[in-house]
Amino acid sequence: ICLFGFISGRWTCFNIDTRHAKIIKGSKEAQFGYTVQQHEADGQKWLLVGAPFESSGEHQTGDVYRCPLDGKPATNCTRLHLGIISPWILYNRCPLMFDDHIILHMHLHTHLLVSASSSLCFDPEIQYSFRRCVIANGLQFVSNLPSTVCTCRCLCIYNRTQAFKHGGRPDAKKVMIVITDGESHDSPNLRKVVEESEKDNITLYGIAVLGYYNRRGINPEAFLREIKFIATDPEEHFFSVTDESALKDIVDALGEKIFSLEGTNQNGTAFGLQMSQAGFSSHIVEDGILVGAVGAYDWNGAVLKETHHGKVIPPKSSYMKEFPEELKNHGAYLGYMVSSVVSAQHGQLYVAGAPRFNHTGKVVIFTLTNSGNLTILYSLYGQQIGSYYGSELAPIDLDDDGLTDLFLVGAPMYFYKGWEKGRVHIYTITLQGSLIPDGTLGPSEKTHDSRFGAAMYTLPDLNGDGFSELVVGAPLEDNHKGAIYLFYGQQNSIQPKYKQRIAAGDISPGLRYFGRSVHGMMDVNGDELIDLSVGALGAAVLLWSRSVVRVGISIHFEPSKINVFNKDCVRGSREVSCMLATVCLNITPQTPITDPKTVALRYSFGFEESRYFPRAVLDSTEEPQPRDVTLRPDSDYCQQVYFHVHEVTDYTRPLIFSVTVGLQNADEGPVLDDGWPTSLQSELPFWNGCDNDDQCIPNLVLQSTSDLLDRRQFCGRRERSSWPPCVHQRTSGERLVEASRRKVLVEARLENRGENAYGTILHITHSPNLQFSSLVLKAPSDIAIECPNSDDMSLYRTCNISAPFMRSFAQVYFRLEFEFSRSVFLNYVQITLRVSSEGEEMSPEDNINDIYHNLKYEADILFTRDSSPSRFEIKPELGQSLPVGTRPPFNLSYQIQNLGMFPVSELLFTLNVFAVTRNANALLRLSDLDIDQTAGSHCNAPRVITAGSSSQEDLSLNPHMNASTSDTLLAQCIINLFPQGDVSITATGWLNLHSLLAVKLKRLDLVMTAVVELSPSSPMFLHEERPMRHIILEIRKEEDYRIPIWVIVGSTLGGLQLLALLVLLPS
Fold first, then answer.
1. N or C: which end of the chain has fewer CB within 10 A?
2. Omega of the bond prior to 315 within 30 degrees of 0, cis?
3. What family does this belong to (predicted)?
4. What b/e string do you get for 416-453 counting C-beta neighbours within 10 Å, with b at 16 or more?
């Protein structure tokens, strides 16, 4: 069945017709259809069908049927009666799906049949009787068996009475092997069956498989007793194995014991050519017929050649190197299949397969002279035990030049993924004649047991590409219904994927073992096409080839590009651009076309637009699609398709117009070439509005500036003129950032001074201490700028400008806004703006602006001190009761706050305590400087002045201790402040009473000066040069004064006189 889909535009079948196949039926019992071959003689075409079990009187001699191929519906085949010409029964070769199988008895859930050992070599006719017994009658027999062990029934009803009926002499020795894994359920008849077998001269072997008993711990004594009873000689003919996998271990021993049944009187006696089975396979060569003799030399096999001058028989020594004596009992079956290849250097070389060599199979390539000199040039080896590698051979001349290009070797019993699928090995033949592996072919992955490769045949070119094709049979597929596979030839190889699988069910539901043989070399029905013949059980099937054509598709647009600037028609009250597409179809035969020489096509067309509002719409939407047309090879068919294009913003992507073709009837007439496209997509671009149709040449010019203030602008305000940055003028290009600033604005202007700029994009990159906030147009404009949302933390973003293009001489003003980051602080800022377009820029150097500034930030610092300093009263009696250096203590507190959003680093805090007199009297001691802030801040220990003995000193005339009258005690801190952070600094110490009592004073002010400052290299600056805060520690002292008597008397008299004077004066 050929399936066509307008979406895929591809056919999914090859050109073999499965609906009109012709089936020629014959006797299933005679194995009619075992081989098929097309033949022509005296102008008459025939199909020769082999029936190897056809009877001639009482003998199954086999025969060949000749079936006329005259085109009549009914075909009457004539038997050629070849069986009465010679007393020997000859046939082509064993049917591979039954080869080397003997009847065995096991549980039905295990296996009914297993492969015989390589040492169990039977006469092909005897083997064939077994095969026929299994296939012709076995299925019916097995289907009626109960799900129990029935040893007697198998021996009596079936094997003993049927298996030895065909072929062989009445007095010939016979052997029967029983393999079972359980006791029989029909044992009452066992003694009778064994006795009757002995009367029929049948030697019985018994093999007991103990796996079932061992796994379940069951005593096998009764089971072993029964199997020993079945064996003719329990000592010689009885075997037991521990499990099923151990069966292979008894193969060689069993072969040695029954070897004498093969035609010799004692073990070790070798056959020569007495049972050679010459003619098992044959192949016509240049000077005669190459013949395989699988039974020669103890079933190792041999090849012979029949010429006009007689038989050519190579000596046995010719094979000894490739088939050594130690493997003689393996039964290599050399000659199971014979063929030949033609190389440029050696000419014709002969090929023979030995599918049982060393259990894996072998193929030899050799020369054979008419004098009998056989020289083996190359050998190919199978890869898997039991795969029957070499049972089928197929040389392929791909290009029909007379030289063999490929050589195929079948391994139909190849085991893969748990199933006996089969495999075909491909070899490339070099000019020197050597064979190089070149891959494998296999069946469908969905199949199970297939026996793929049981039959192969090289077909002439079927699809018109000039390369030969290959057909492979898989007769056990689909539960033994069978199937065939067709593979395309290609340059120097075979396509690894099959092009058509034809199952028996596609032809007729009653077919069995379809694909057991294949052949195809001539036009059978007179249509000038090669037809295929396939053998099945009791039938021969004729399959007809179909013509192969290619459909040519062309699309032409008028005009060739969409001009959206020119609206030349109206559709639905809207101005649009109208256009015309001309679609033309024609056919080109790849193989001859039968009468009538026309092809019925079905086609459809349209735009591939997935958007809700398509950019282009067909004018005529009432006409149905797909449409039908019938073409001849010598004519073209064209149709005009009118459509219109709307005003759109997407000018960059062209419109896609597609045409898809198929067949009106996939079951009749020619087929479309599998390798030729059945659809065509044509792009319809938009006109760019530029002088050069392929590319525009724009000239984009970008200008931008930021609003960050330079030093001159910052210091222009009067209140800032005394600030440190303004006092210490520098020539650097620094920008000063006010403490209140939170954003950076960039004013930009973009102008296109050239042709249209398609796909114009603004690229924005900035330093990590900025975050993009927005882009705003400064004035109404027909140019739009869209910045898609992206990660807020990204340092890069793009904005589309006036999609799809920016017109020539257009300009736009816009503003970019950035916010300072609260997590990243840098001493610079960088903003890079770049514009690009799809065109070739006229002057790319003005497409980029890089704004880079070193920054100085205004530090918004609040520096405060303790507003309530302490006062101390010094009494003389304190010095007599307190130890030296203690009491009373004092505390000094300072607070620094960062009110800004930027961090302040390495702020230096310096505390100067003026408390050491000129005579080195230390009036107080500074013990500690403590800071409560977190990591990054630290204080140095206060400088300690070693106090000497206190000395007398008069400080009453100098009550202030400051920088000019005293030495200082120094302490410093390095402070780091986070945004909106603060820190408290506390200085602690005590008054030195012994020094204070030693000096003369009434009141003394000790000045404590604290200063904060930033390094000149710091990215921050302060409003003041060095903000300073003072704390005055006031000290008062009580003195012990004794006034003399004369002073008291004199003062009293003087006071009385003054009083008298004041009283008398007014009067």
1. C
2. no
3. Belongs to the integrin alpha chain family.
4. beeebbbbbbbbbbeeebebeebebbbbeeebebbbbb
What pLDDT is recorded for position 187?
64
User: Which residue, 109, 114, 177, 184, is CA-closest to 149?
Assistant: 184
Kindly report, residue by residue over 786-831, the tens digit of the pLDDT: 998 877 778 999 999 987 788 889 999 999 999 999 889 999 999 9
What's residue 429's pLDDT? Answer: 92
pLDDT at position 122 is 33
Residue 101: closest CA among 69, 138, 156 = 138
Beta strand 616-618 with 770-777 is: unpaired
SS3 assignment for 128-175 = HHHHHHHHHHHHHHHHCCCCCCCHHHHHHHHHHHHHCCCCCCCCCCEE
φ/ψ bin of 335: left (φ > 0), alpha (ψ from -120 to 50), beta (otherwise): left
Q: How many Å apart are CA 488 and CA 461, to the nearest integer?
A: 9
Please, are residues 937 and 931 in contact by the beta-carbon 8 Å criterion? yes
- For position 154, what pLDDT does the model report? 55
- Distance separating alpha carbons of residues 770 and 726, to the nearest angstrom: 26
Q: Beta partners for 656? A: 683
Q: For position 836, what pLDDT does the model report?
A: 94
The token duo for 1003 is 């009141």
Whole-angstrom CA distances from 631 to 431, 540, 551, 553 are: 46, 36, 10, 13
Chain centroid to Cα 636, Å, comes to 44
CA–centroid distance for 836 within its chain:
35
509: nearest Cα among 536, 532, 487, 531: 536
Q: Which two tokens stand for residue 522?
A: 């001539």
Distance in angstroms (rounded) separating the CA atoms of residues 1022 and 999 = 42
- The angle, 0 to 180 degrees and rounded to 10, between the axes of the packed helices 221-230 and 190-199 is 20
Identify which of 367, 360, 492 has the alpha carbon closest to the alpha carbon of residue 438.
492
Residues 6+ apart with CB under 8 A from 215: none
Q: Is the peptide bond before 725 cis (omega within 30 degrees of 0)?
A: no
C-alpha 687/C-alpha 328 separation (Å) is: 82
Tokens of 849: 């602006």
What type of residue sits at position 656? I
Distance CA 455, CA 579 (A): 59
Supply the pTM of this predicted model. Answer: 0.59
Residue whose pair of structure tokens reads 């904060």 in the numeric block: 1012
Q: What DSSP assignment string belongs to 366-404?
A: EEE-TTS-EEEEEEEE-SSTTS-BTSEEEEE-TTSSSS-
Q: Rounded to whole angstroms, how far apart are CA atoms 925 and 943?
A: 10
CA 447 to chain centre: 26
Looking at residue 780, its pLDDT comes to 83
Q: Hey, what's the torsion of the CAs at 165, 168, 173, 174, to 10 degrees? A: -40
CA dist 241 and 238 (Å) reads 11
pLDDT in tens, 244-258: 777 766 665 665 555
Asked if 240 and 210 count as a contact pair (C-beta separation under 8 A), the reply is yes
Q: How far apart are CA 542 and CA 19, in angstroms?
A: 11
Q: CB-based burial of residue 308 (10 Å sphere; 0-12 exposed, 13-18 middle, 19+ buried)?
A: exposed
Tell me, what DSSP letter sits at residue 460?
A: P
Q: Residue 867 carries which DSSP code?
A: S
The pLDDT of residue 89 is 36
pLDDT at 178: 87
Distance, CA of 413 to CA of 415 (rounded, Å): 6
In this prediction, the residues of the chain whose per-residue pLDDT falls under 50 are 1-12, 86-148, 156-157, 259-270, 885
